[in-house]
């Protein structure tokens, strides 16, 4: 009792029981108040990948544990409907929202450019978002140049039209 151990998240999740209190989970430093204050100053300066490649994923998993700071970690200070006490410090949601526009803008405005420096600082979720934006831009460029395949209606749309027409015959 009273010992501190580092265990994998899956094991902590398995041992965590709010009724029996087998373990208590301590927040990693990047989710504590000091770091949330840094994020609230300017989240774009922080290298999320260096802090943990799955910053948002781990943070959302930590919300499953009983911690009085969970509302501050999860929610934005701008929620008027929330009855939970929320500080003005940056949260997972605020951090993602502040990064979202920059990521989407960058993915749309870096056609045929080296993006390795930009992508190196992103969390895995942000990298996926960036790649999706780049793919959309590349697909659009191909379509604009006439290099895309012919656009056809989906089989679901075609079947829906047939069903609707069959229903009116009845």
UniProtKB/TrEMBL annotation:
Keyword Transmembrane: no
Localization of this protein: Nucleus
Keywords: DNA replication, Nucleus
InterPro entries from the UniProt entry: GINS_A (IPR021151), GINS_bundle-like_dom_sf (IPR036224), GINS_Psf3 (IPR010492), GINS_Psf3_sf (IPR038437)
GO cellular component, one term: GINS complex
GINS subunit domain ranges (all copies): 31-143
One Pfam family here: Sld5
Keyword Repeat in annotation: no
Highest taxon in the source lineage: Eukaryota
GO biological process: mitotic DNA replication initiation
Family statement: Belongs to the GINS3/PSF3 family.
Subunit structure: Component of the GINS complex.
PANTHER family the record matches: DNA REPLICATION COMPLEX GINS PROTEIN PSF3
Function description: The GINS complex plays an essential role in the initiation of DNA replication.
Protein name: DNA replication complex GINS protein PSF3
């Amino acid at each position: 009792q009273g010992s501190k151990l580092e265990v994998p998240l899956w094991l902590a999740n398995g041992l965590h029981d709010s009724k029996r209190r087998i373990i208590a989970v301590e927040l990693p430093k990047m989710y504590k108040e000091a770091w949330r204050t840094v994020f609230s100053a300017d989240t774009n300066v922080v290298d999320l990948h260096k802090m943990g490649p799955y910053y948002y994923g781990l943070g959302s998993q930590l919300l499953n544990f009983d911690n009085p700071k969970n509302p501050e970690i999860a929610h934005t200070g701008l929620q008027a409907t929330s009855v939970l006490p929320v500080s003005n410090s940056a949260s997972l949601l605020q951090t993602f929202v502040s990064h979202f526009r920059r990521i989407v803008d960058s993915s749309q405005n870096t056609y045929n450019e080296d993006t390795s420096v930009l992508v190196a600082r992103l969390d895995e979720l942000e990298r996926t978002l960036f790649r999706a934006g780049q793919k959309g831009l590349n697909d659009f460029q191909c379509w604009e140049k006439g290099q895309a395949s012919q656009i056809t209606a989906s089989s679901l749309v075609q079947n829906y039209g047939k069903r609707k027409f069959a229903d009116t015959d009845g």
